Task: inverse folding
């Protein structure tokens, strides 16, 4: 099987799903203004940017709600998490964005693959990432819910892309014998290909396709070309 790199389906990036209309605030923005921005715009966080539009932090609802816990935090005695407690107390006492925000802002480039953005969110334990352009200026924001949009593609869209971008791009003499069924983003591949490696590559590329939840491999092959030198000369066949 020969598959040109340019023929591979394009993996979606942060730029495909991010929110570009982002409400931001300056480091001097008062507490009440931050609350109003979140409430009026139905968002859960406000990026904080400097005068050049470069993100320096982010204020989330979780940061702001610490204000309601001021008395509790003042009397708390947590020796195991002393640094965290001190940090939360400082935020609870804050009156402007620079005193409340979580800093530095965790940023990603707009061309970051969705899988990489998801990995960063999980590693950093955050719900959103600030997206920046090549100059480091804010370009958008991407949230967990944004990343899940790829799974809202219809079954027909997924099936068409598999046929168009994978099967038709493979140099397979038996490509017309491959059948694709998609239900709830789970792809079932069936039919017959020439070689075992053909089946393995097609299954792997399908599984890596954006929006695919899982792949059920029912593909059959004429001969096993992965069993070593003996298979190349003796052709190890699997019953069809």
Result:
């Amino acid at each position: 099987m020969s598959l040109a790199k340019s023929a591979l389906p394009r993996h979606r990036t942060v730029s495909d799903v991010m929110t570009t209309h982002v409400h931001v605030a300056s480091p001097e923005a008062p507490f009440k203004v931050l609350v109003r921005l979140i409430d009026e715009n139905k968002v859960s966080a406000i990026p904080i940017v400097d005068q050049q539009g470069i993100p320096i932090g982010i204020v989330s609802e979780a940061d702001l709600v610490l204000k309601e816990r001021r008395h509790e935090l003042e009397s708390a005695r947590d020796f195991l998490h002393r640094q965290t407690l001190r940090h939360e107390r400082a935020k609870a006492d804050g009156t402007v964005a620079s005193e409340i925000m979580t800093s530095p802002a965790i940023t990603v480039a707009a061309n970051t693959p969705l899988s990489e953005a998801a990995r960063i969110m999980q590693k950093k334990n955050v719900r959103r990432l600030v997206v920046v352009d090549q100059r480091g200026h804010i370009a958008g924001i991407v949230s967990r819910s944004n990343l899940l949009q790829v799974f809202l593609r219809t079954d027909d869209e997924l099936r068409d892309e598999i046929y168009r971008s994978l099967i038709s791009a493979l140099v397979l003499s038996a490509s017309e014998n491959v059948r694709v069924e998609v239900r709830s983003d789970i792809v079932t591949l069936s039919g017959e290909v020439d070689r075992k490696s053909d089946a393995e590559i097609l299954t792997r590329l399908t599984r890596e396709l954006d929006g695919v939840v899982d792949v059920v491999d029912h593909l059959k092959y004429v001969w096993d070309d992965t069993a070593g030198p003996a298979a190349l000369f003796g052709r190890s066949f699997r019953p069809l």
